[in-house]
Amino acid sequence: xxxxxxxxxxxxxxxxxxxxxxxxxxAGRAPGHVSDAGTTESTxxxxxVGRLPGVQAPDELTLALTEYLAELKAWxxxxxxxxxxxxxxxxxxxxxxxxxxxPLIDRIHPTQVLDLGSGGGFPIVPIKLARPELQVALVxxxxxxxxxxxxxxxxxDLRGFWVWNMRAEVLAxxxxxxxxxxxxxxxxxxxxxxxxxxxxxDLVTVRAVxxxxxxxxxxxxxxASGGHLLAFKGSRLDQELAEWKTDPRGWSLEDVVPLSxxxxxxxxxxx
Length: 271
Hints:
10 helices; alpha/beta; 7 strands
């Protein structure tokens, strides 16, 4: 089972700081929506975890997320993992949006996930912590950011968690792993931590990377038939959808979930 083998060490914990199916847009407020500006980030984190379905050990998950955010803050000055303006709202923006994808992921039941352009680890690290049974591979082209993600893996003792320092389009162009198309098989082909074979997965996740047309083009060689692409998109979503519709490439739009006036999650299914 791909999971953390032991809970994070509480001695390392930082101190507290002050849908519907189909292409129609889902109504209502998304699970990760945050509206109370007066709520502290630490309090909000506990509330987000408490509202998340299927969490057997909420205190452990809250601690793991807290340790992850502490590591991110420590690296951010040299790694530019998130904008400095976002550091005070890591929970209210980044963690909340990431955890909002968990109900969608639960609905489609993937076992293997590729996260493209992982950067500072959103959304995939909170998703992995919330659903430790998922096997995930993080694809990040920038060396320093990939080092940070490997540090997160070590600090939180994550298993079924690979970090590949490469570009997504390069991975998409590799041959399929001869000994099988799993993430583990692709990782076994690695040369200095970079696979020479590509996996075939159930789900690709992506946040703030490339247009929908590019993402569907890259992902078609990475996702099995019936698998999904889950993308976080901003104000250009309508324009990107119109562009994608000119060449859908065997993809269908399954859902659009609003998280805020600026951010929506788009879910595609590969036929």
